[in-house]
């Protein structure tokens, strides 16, 4: 809910606090942003979605096999991960990067997801699509529909594996959004952090799968996600890493040294910023006047926590703005939304949570009015 949702409802908008963390002499000495080779890149916090770095991150680009992140998202939502899949000749015949499936071979959907996300098997992606949706074309429609539902701005899929195709593109921003969603699925996380795995089909065929994401060996805390390479897209990488309670996500599109780019971005995020909790769930902010109730006012509280990334050098400026109803007619119910608190960092909105009634205020009866 945004401020405009309360327009005309007798609200007041106030600056709850405008606290500058700028230290004397440090305001213009922010750690220099990392230099990356990628044509397009972004660094985001997985927990709250805050953008910590961006370079041409809204510019449409082909994304090669990072497409398979979305392929996995639809598969995990659309079928039982333990269901059995019979590989068609069409799926087995897909070229380029492959886990070397054989026609008629039977594997579980989970095994095929390992093949798609570790070995980057184009054949595995088609087998997944045919199992879940009947045809790859129908499956691609599901991918596009899901992308829209998740809020992407500039993304279009034409296949399940990222092979070059007209109108197959995304942006670093959209790809970060899709991956951030995927990383909330435990099965997806388990697969993409796996360095190597041997998959044996029900027919007794063994497939050795080694993750193409070299960052899993090179960067402490690295736990995903997916590489991609074609002539059109260049070298691409979506990389995540976790340190303590913080998990960061870097997206590299068309970089000459994608692993070094990702390392620089992740180092920048972990070393330059720290988590700061700015709003606490249940924190009481004010009271709202109640008309016709057994009480004249109702206490209001923050519905959720807000934790944001702030620079460790203290040069960020934090603001909190509150939109709150001036009065409300009884009855009022505990948890009812009465406003919103918005957190801004350096003038940009980074997060928000509702302000809700802290208790129920019943409508005043005639007897109660007489007694009052």
UniProtKB/TrEMBL annotation:
Protein origin, superkingdom: Bacteria
Ligand binding (substrate): 226
Keywords: Carboxypeptidase, Cell shape, Cell wall biogenesis/degradation, Hydrolase, Peptidoglycan synthesis, Protease, Signal
Annotated catalysed reactions: Preferential cleavage: (Ac)2-L-Lys-D-Ala-|-D-Ala. Also transpeptidation of peptidyl-alanyl moieties that are N-acyl substituents of D-alanine
SUPFAM superfamilies (UniProt xref): beta-lactamase/transpeptidase-like (SSF56601), Penicillin-binding protein associated domain (SSF69189)
Cell wall biogenesis/degradation among keywords: yes
Annotated pathway: Cell wall biogenesis; peptidoglycan biosynthesis
Domain Peptidase S11 D-Ala-D-Ala carboxypeptidase A C-terminal: 273-363
EC number: 3.4.16.4
GO function term, MF aspect, one: serine-type D-Ala-D-Ala carboxypeptidase activity
Signal peptide: 1-22
Uppermost EC category: hydrolase
Pfam families registered for this protein in UniProt: PBP5_C, Peptidase_S11
Active site: 65 (acyl-ester intermediate), 68 (proton acceptor), 120
One annotated GO biological process: cell wall organization
Function description: Removes C-terminal D-alanyl residues from sugar-peptide cell wall precursors.
Assigned protein family: Belongs to the peptidase S11 family.
Record's protein name: serine-type D-Ala-D-Ala carboxypeptidase
Biological source species: Sporotomaculum syntrophicum
Organism lineage: Bacteria, Bacillati, Bacillota, Clostridia, Eubacteriales
């Amino acid at each position: 809910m945004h401020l405009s949702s309360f327009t005309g409802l007798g609200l007041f908008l106030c600056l709850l606090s405008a606290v500058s963390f700028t230290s004397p002499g440090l305001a213009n000495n922010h750690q220099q942003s990392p230099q990356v080779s990628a044509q397009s890149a972004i660094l985001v916090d997985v927990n709250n979605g805050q953008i910590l770095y961006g370079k041409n991150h809204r510019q449409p680009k082909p994304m090669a096999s990072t497409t398979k992140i979305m392929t996995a998202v639809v598969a995990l939502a659309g079928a039982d991960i333990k269901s059995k899949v019979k590989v068609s000749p069409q799926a087995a015949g897909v070229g380029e990067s492959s886990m070397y499936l054989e026609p008629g071979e039977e594997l579980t959907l989970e095994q095929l997801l390992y093949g798609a996300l570790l070995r980057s098997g184009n054949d595995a992606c088609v087998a997944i699509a045919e199992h879940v949706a009947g045809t790859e074309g129908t499956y691609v429609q599901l991918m596009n529909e899901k992308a829209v539902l998740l809020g992407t701005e500039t993304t279009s899929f034409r296949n399940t594996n990222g092979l070059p195709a007209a109108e197959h593109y995304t942006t670093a921003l959209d790809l970060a959004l899709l991956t951030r969603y995927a990383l909330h699925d435990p099965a997806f996380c388990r697969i993409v952090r796996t360095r190597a795995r041997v998959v044996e089909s029900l027919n007794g065929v063994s497939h050795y799968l080694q993750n193409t994401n070299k960052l899993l060996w090179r960067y402490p805390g690295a736990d995903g996600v997916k590489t991609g390479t074609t002539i059109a897209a260049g070298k691409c990488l979506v990389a995540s890493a976790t340190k303590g309670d913080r998990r960061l996500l870097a997206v590299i599109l068309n970089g000459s040294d994608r692993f070094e780019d990702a390392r620089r971005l992740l180092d920048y995020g972990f070393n330059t910023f720290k988590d700061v909790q700015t709003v606490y769930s249940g924190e009481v902010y004010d009271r709202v006047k109640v008309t016709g109730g057994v009480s004249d006012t109702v206490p209001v509280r923050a519905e959720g926590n807000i934790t944001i990334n702030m620079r460790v050098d203290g040069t960020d400026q934090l603001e909190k703005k509150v939109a709150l109803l001036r009065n409300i007619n009884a009855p009022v119910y505990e948890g009812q939304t009465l406003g919103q608190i918005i957190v801004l960092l350096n003038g940009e909105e980074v997060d928000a949570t509702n302000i809700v009634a802290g208790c129920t205020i019943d409508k005043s009866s005639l007897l109660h009015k007489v007694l009052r």
